[in-house]
Amino acid sequence: MAINAQAVLPAANRVRALILASHPVPSVAVTALSTLLAAEAAPHGIGPVLTAPAMLAGQLSVGWSNDAIDAARDAAVGRTDKPAATGAISVRGLWIAAVVAAVAALVMALAIGPVTLLVLAVATGAGWAYNAGLKGTAASGLMYMIGVGLVPAYAASTLPGHPAPSWPVTVAAALLGLGAHFANVLPDLAADEATGVRGLPQLVAARWGAATVRVLALIPLLAASVLLVVAARPDRRWAAIAGLAVAVVLAAFGARGSGKVPFLAAIGIAAIDVVLLAVGVEALT
Question: Is residue 14 part of a domain?
């Protein structure tokens, strides 16, 4: 049977646009973190099988709804990296994908258990609430703290009895989310000012300057690194200490640097925290 190349190409372009609009890097990072935590905590049963696809579907729904809501704003500032802003995919198509992904996430979470469903619904709901309007308020940072801070609870919900995760792990995850929020907006502060976005980092920048935003992107991430040393397994504490040392060096470069240096330093510290959180903690609960 002959393949219609003209039909295949637009379909491939739509798939590529969907991937780009899903915010693939944070979506995969959060999914990988929750999967590693769950697999280490409860290596058997249905939890590890559905943990990754359920979280990934939830993250994809957040990413697609974000680009659907922001399409007009992104087009106004000429964001060529946003498929909906360039017309590579329709806003309607993004909304359909976001809703389907959200429903799929909740169904898979329910298959794991009602506690997992509740935790994932709150975490995903925080992302949708951020997209729907809280990104333009001082509560924007809280949504990040809830979304990422619940990752350990999501993983722990796959354990028998659904124990709560330990406080150092939970607080470290929440601080990681807050630091990631401040780091994420660093490249977009000018565009956000032009389009009237007034989230927590933008409010800080308006009052105390962009340099303060850079510092506040680094402090929560460093604090998370310290907590992960506290929560580290005895046989891996050396790795946590080494990670903290590297994080301190990156923070020094980020605080003194300019251009993309603070953003890259913050991303580097966040990556260290993610690795330590996933493989270095002594116990999730």
Answer: no
The pair of three-digit structure tokens given for residue 104, joined into one six-digit string: 């799929």
How many domains are contained in the chain?
A: 1
Question: For residue 264, what are its two tokens?
Answer: 């890259």
Longest CA–CA span in the chain (Å) reads 64
In this structure, are residues 280 and 232 in contact, taking their beta carbons and an 8 Å threshold? Answer: yes
What pTM, to 2 d.p., does this model score?
A: 0.86
* Nearest by Cα to 27 from 130, 147, 169, 142: 147
In the chain, which stretches have pLDDT less than 50?
A: 1-9
The alpha carbon torsion through 119, 160, 56, 58 (nearest 10 deg) reads -20
In sequence order, what are the beta bridge partners of 232? Answer: 281
DSSP E strand stretches across the chain? none
Residues 6+ apart with CB under 8 A from 45: 158
